[in-house]
Every structure is written in C-alpha cells, then in structure tokens.
What we know:
By secondary structure, chain A is of the alpha/beta class.
Amino acid sequence: MDAEIRPRTSAAIPLRFSLAIGGVAGTSFKPEHLAAILDEGPQRGFFEVHAENYMGAGGPPHRMLERLRRDHPLSVHGVCMSIGGPGPLDRAHLARFRGLIARYQPALVSEHLAWSTHETSFFNDLLPLPYTKATLDRVCDHIDEVQEAIRCPLLLENPSTYVTFRNSTMSETDFIRAVAERTGCGLLLDVNNVFVSATNHGFSALQYLSDFPLARVGEIHLAGHAEQSDDEGDLLLLDSHDGPVADAVWKLFEIVIARRGPVPTLVEWDSNIPDWPVLKTEAAAAQAILDRRCAMEDRHAG
Amino acid sequence: MRANAQASYAAAFAPPLLDPDGDVPAVVTGPNGKSAMKRYNVYRNNVTVSLIEALAAIYPAVQRLTGPDFFRAMARFHIRETPPTSPLLFDYGRDFPGFIARYEHAQALPWLADVARIERAWLDAYHAADAAPLAAIEFAAIAPDRLASLVLTVHPATRVVRSSFAAVTIFAANRTGESADHIDASTPQDALITRPELDVVVRQLPPGGAVFVTCLMSGCMLAEAAAAALEDSRDFELATNIAGLIEAGAFTSLRPGDQKK
C-alpha cells in the first residue's frame, strides 16, 4: 500500500556517525507507555523501536516517534531484513529502512543474523541459518548492501536458536567475528540470546562470551525468556521477551560490562507488556551496573 | 552451484513451518544427536501464533463477534492458505474478508466479512499519508456556476465500504463498545472511513453517498458524481452529502474540472 516513506532530503545522504550515547540504559518503546514517558519529561536513557512498525506513510505512529525523538536518543531495530536469507534483499524494504533512518537520525541502528522471508512468503520469525563459507559470503554481501544504503554502521545481533544445521562448518562466534571483520559492521550482543542458545545447545555461555569479539559490541540487549522442554525432557528456553530479565542473564551482563566497559544497553519487553514503571525499573537496574563500571573507570583514570 | 547449496537451507526449512503434517526438515538437528521435533515446533508455533495475533490486532471486532477460539481457528486456516508476502504486518490480511465470506463455518454471520472490510479500511486510514483536510470555507468560496465541473481531491485516508447488512452499526458496537440494544442486521449500510487529523472516524453514509464518494475518488466532476448518486438512490441529497464529507475531512483540495492539473 502507501508504505513508502521518502527521506526528507532527496539528495545523497552523507555518511554519518552519530554521537555516541555511551553507557546508557534504554527500553523498548511501546505506544501505551508514551503518556507516562512524556509526563516524566526528558530523562536519561534511550528508546528502541522496531523499524517495521514505523514504515507506514503517516498517521499516529510517526507523530509518536517524532514526539519521542524530540527529547530522547533513538535506536532503530530492524526485524525483517532477512540478512541471513539465501535470496536477495527486498529492495523496497531496504529503501523504507533507509528512509526511516534518514528521517529520525537514530543513535543506533541494528538488524538480526537471521532470515524471515523465503521466496514470496514472510514468516514473521527470526529463522536460523547454517554457518558455512557460502552463507558467510552471502551475509557479508547483504550487510555491505544495507550499510551502503543507510550510510551509517549497522549493529548485527546474535540470534537465539533452537536447532542447529547439520552442514554448519563454523561456530557462531567465528561466523559473527568474520562478518564484523569483513564488513566493518558493529555488533549487538543479546546476552539473553547467548543464555538461551547456550542452554538449548548445551554449550557454556561464558565460553561463548570469551569467543565473542566484544570490542565490536556497540549495544547490548537484555530480555526475559520462558521455559519449555525438548523431546528428551530437558530444559528448552524460549526467547519470549515477555517477562523480567533472569538472574543468570544479569550475572552474564555484569561480566560482559566488566570486560567491555559501558555500552548502550536495552531492556526488551515485547509481550505481556507491563506498566511503564516496571519496565523503567528494569532499565534502572541495568543503568546501575553500567554506572558502577563507569565510576570504576573514573577512579582508575584519576 | 553455490546458489543452489545456499538456497537449500531455506527451501528445506520453510515449507513445514505452515504445514502441520510436514516432516521436520532433515537439515536441522538438536545438539549431540538429540531430536529436533519440539525444537523445530518452536519456530512453527512462533510463525503461526504471531500471524494469528497480527490478524487479531487488525480485526478486533471480528474476533469479538466470533469469540477467540473460533477466530483463531479461522485465522489459522487463512494463514496457511495465504501467508503474508510483505514484512509489514499492518499490511497483512487484505484477503481475510474474502476468506471470511467463503469460510463455511462463518456462513451464519453473513455480515462478518463486511465488518472485516471496515476494520481493514480503518487500519489503512490509520497509516495513510498525512494531509490537511479541505476547509469548508474553500468550498463556500466557489462561484455557483463553477460547482458542476468541480473536481475534489480525496484525502489519502478516505475509504468507502458498502454492505448489504448493518455493518457500520455492528462494527461500532463491537469495536468501540457503543451501546446497541438491538441491531437489525438486515439494514444495508455504507461506511465512510476518514482520518482528517490523528483519529480514524467511521461514519454511516446517507443514501447514494457511497456512489457519490466513489465517483469523486475516481476523479469525476461534481455533477457527474451527483448524477450517478441520484441514479443509485432517489433520496440522494447533494448539499447534505457535500457538507457531511467536508466535515468528515474526506477531501484535501478542489479545482475546476475544466482545468487540467
């Protein structure tokens, strides 16, 4: 339909590196929280939106985002680019993504190491890919194409997965490191995804974090997960984003921050959405960990 | 060669996502030789449930009329038959009203498809491009001898849905909670959907109004649209219709029809 958003500047958009927002904690933005957020006035923090929800031509979604953007840094998180898919990127979708970024000038832009479209069907889920030389080439091509279009660095998010491909020849961390080195993209480290995948596949989350190129991490995600069981009756974790961050994930987050230093950190909450104060309290807990680390750096510097 | 090898993982992984009888793709496994059945079903479930929820978000009045269990079963059939082709979920479900009209278990609710059409138009109006509506004073300033050849530009949000049933009243009662003690479902109603500023408004059009607006939307001059509307209904009143449409914010501008844009 009328989903095309035209960038306000029609000329070539210059390559832009936004101001670093530093070790600030933010939250997913949910429209039902807008009134409560505005009541509080400008606060420290940032908000992340799913890009696709703001790809309509006009109407209330854009009014809300404009209002939010006036006082707060924004993170645009793409969910449907299908960077990990074998097919070519959807050019119309990439143009919409570029338009959104040009219009709102977010501090952070991210997408997933996953796919969601095959041939003409869109599956609305983050689907897994094998880690091979061939998929590495393809993912790098796709990221080059996205970064060329949006004229700013993309942060690529590590997935949560439930199955593995028999034909994978690389570890996920080797794959992600190679993508970052070849394309120059940054990384979004989802600590909950690490914990979920580690539990589901029986590897050590700490080992994964040791292997992960932390220096490339430009944003961290934290979220809640749900429990189920696999065919053998063992614990299977679901990346559900429907509750508070688990204690084990907080511990891993502290370890990552101790090694990496403070980086923008987002608490995601996408279903069973609580009242704003609950989500804000989760972000405050992340902020406390980031601030402790900042204070430590200052002491060492002093 | 390389393209084939790459395509195989998605080509193998995707089809069983929407086919409950399909086998788990042989390309995937659990760790250390564990079964992938329940693991793959997480993806299956994510796809189906998230798309059902997308339809429920677009069609809340339809869900209220059918009840959630009926709605989810109906939506599941539709998703398997017509999965989305765009990553923009607010664009999904365009074929759902037509599916409802054919769905055998929904035949007892013959107005259901029209209520769905109004809900689909509501969401299109919500996301439509912003534009300032035509002010009444601009219309009033037109010399009477120029009225017949006037061409009106319709606001990007404006939609018309015609129904052989009381779809507007049923929509309002099940969407906004407006009280409706007794609805005579067999009264035909036409809906006008507009969004002059931020709020989407659904109104019932007067007799002939739907034909009148539809003609104007296709670029007809005012006199042509009025003639078509009178042909549709002898009760059509030009002044009432124009005043109502301008008040609803259905137009953005006007120009003399003898001038090319």
